[in-house]
Specification:
It is built from 16 helices and 12 strands. It is α/β, with parallel strands linked by helices and 462 residues long. The strands form 2 sheets. Strands 5, 6, 7, 8, 9, 10, 11 and 12 form an 8-stranded mixed sheet that branches. The chain has a 4-stranded antiparallel sheet with strand order 2-3-1-4, with helices on both faces. Helix 15 links the parallel strand 8 and strand 9.
Length: 462
């Protein structure tokens, strides 16, 4: 398998290609691939930025998105096609040039509706502006050779290509059939998922369907508060957002919030809170009554939460935020919480279907490394739960090292933990025989299946 890691290449300086700013869907796609591979950008954010910068139409934006996500899902396959044509090899090829070749190779192999001449001419013209005629001549020669080998009837890519070590890890956790389903699950652009105040989903679906008739609006399959949205644009500009009608939250994350079982009047802590998506969910379920604490290492992220609580009409809740690294200590947090959630940092394999750029950054050692971090976080979190309270641990990952492995190790440290049914507060969803709630590929193979999570809950005894 050809390597697609770029560790020995320096990122391009900001503004280096300002004279050749992308203006077409194919140019945007190549630019985003460059940013993702060379600069570590997230595909979704980079796409949004470049699409707005180029002012693409909805149709062209969809094409750019398809090229980016498709290319990232099959990047080893593309490199195997391109690498033999590069005298200097992948690692020594200019980043933008390689991004253009990869995007073009994907179109030639998988997008039959795009004419060959449009792919080649567009790529050559873009590189000519950005890198000059000699490099453009090289790209032209490579793509014309690839065009000769273009399939008569190019078919869309249907399977994410992953390293052998990762396939083995997924197969160990999911089984061969579910692993195949996961990798072949979704070839299109991931939908946007909204979370609405409990009991108001029908109202939100009706409002959005009426206001945006060309969009696809549907109730979620698993969370009673989820609304799945496609082709509706920026969710922050949708009717009702400014008035607190909903927030953006993936459906699997909503199920994690439900698993906590937070109720009005309780004292609840959301550790590893990040931007506060699950904090908002918990606050909503608590009806704005009780005490809620959010903790994270990133102070800037925590600073966003009070404004969101206010927008959603939940500012009456007794809320506090604490910047703390729980792998080091409690940072002033004291115990006595009724419920504590640890949505721990992880390898992120549960998001692979919508974040294929993870494949560029994961290494085999990452799974065990993140499992060790999770165990330390949970060990500190146990000290914050009152006797009779509950601790919920969630990871958006699929490996056995994370999830089940960490849970067993934690139980070996604390005799006061009694494993509970993690799905006890969820409608029509059951845990496995070990009490672990497994979300994502374990639950659904549908087009809008949620991110993959493993959720474990414990009752804490005296």
């Amino acid at each position: 398998m050809a390597s697609h890691h770029r560790a020995n290449r320096k990122p391009l300086a900001r503004g280096q290609d300002s004279a050749s700013a992308p203006t077409t869907a194919r140019e945007v796609a190549a630019t985003v691939l460059l940013r993702v591979v060379e600069q570590g950008a997230y595909a979704m954010q980079a796409l949004d930025s470049e699409i707005q910068r180029a002012r693409l139409s909805e149709r062209d934006a969809a094409l750019a998105t398809e090229i980016v996500y498709g290319s990232l899902r099959v990047l080893p396959e593309l490199d195997a096609i391109v690498a033999p044509r590069l005298k200097r090899g992948l690692a020594s090829t200019d980043g933008l040039t390689l991004a253009v070749l990869r995007a073009s190779a994907y179109q030639l192999a998988h997008l039959g509706r795009v004419p060959t001449h449009a792919i080649v001419d567009g790529a050559v013209g873009f590189i000519r502006r950005a890198r000059g005629r000699p490099v453009a001549g090289f790209v032209n020669a490579v793509l014309r050779k690839l065009a000769v080998q273009r399939p008569e009837d190019p078919q869309p890519a249907t399977r994410t290509v992953v390293p052998e070590w990762l396939y083995a890890s997924l197969a160990e956790a999911l089984g061969a059939a579910r692993t195949q389903a996961l990798l072949e699950l979704r070839s299109g652009t991931p939908p946007v998922c909204l979370c609405v105040p409990h009991g108001k989903r029908h109202q939100v679906v009706t409002t959005l369907t009426t206001a945006i008739p060309h969009a696809q609006i549907a109730a979620g399959d698993l969370s009673p508060d989820a609304v799945i949205v496609r082709r509706a644009g920026d969710p922050r500009r949708l009717p009702g957002f400014a008035q607190g009608g909903f927030w953006v939250q993936e459906e699997g994350a909503q199920l994690v919030g439900l698993a906590v079982g937070a109720a009005p009047g309780e004292q609840v802590a959301d550790l590893c809170a990040g931007h506060g998506g699950k904090t908002l969910f918990l606050a909503n379920r608590m009806g704005g009554r009780g005490g809620l604490t959010s903790a994270d290492v990133d102070e800037a992220k925590l600073a966003l939460i009070p404004g969101e609580l206010s927008r959603l009409g939940l500012a009456g809740l007794a809320f506090s935020a604490h910047t703390v690294d729980l792998t080091v200590g409690l940072g002033g947090l004291s115990g006595g919480y009724d419920r504590v959630l640890v949505d721990a940092p992880c390898a992120g394999l549960g998001t692979l279907h919508r974040r294929p750029e993870l494949l560029l950054r994961l290494a085999p050692a990452d799974l065990d490394r993140m499992a060790s971090v999770q165990l330390e976080l949970l060990s500190r979190a146990c000290q914050l739960v009152r006797p009779g309270g509950s601790l919920t641990y969630a990871v958006c990952s699929l490996s056995r090292a994370e999830g089940a492995g960490v849970a067993a190790a934690l139980e070996g440290r604390f005799e006061t933990l009694r494993r509970a049914d993690a799905a006890a507060h969820l409608p029509d969803i059951a845990s496995d025989s070990d009490g672990i709630l497994r979300i994502g590929p374990w639950l659904s193979r549908g087009a809008s299946a949620p991110d993959g999570y493993q959720v474990v809950s414990w009752d804490v005894t005296a």
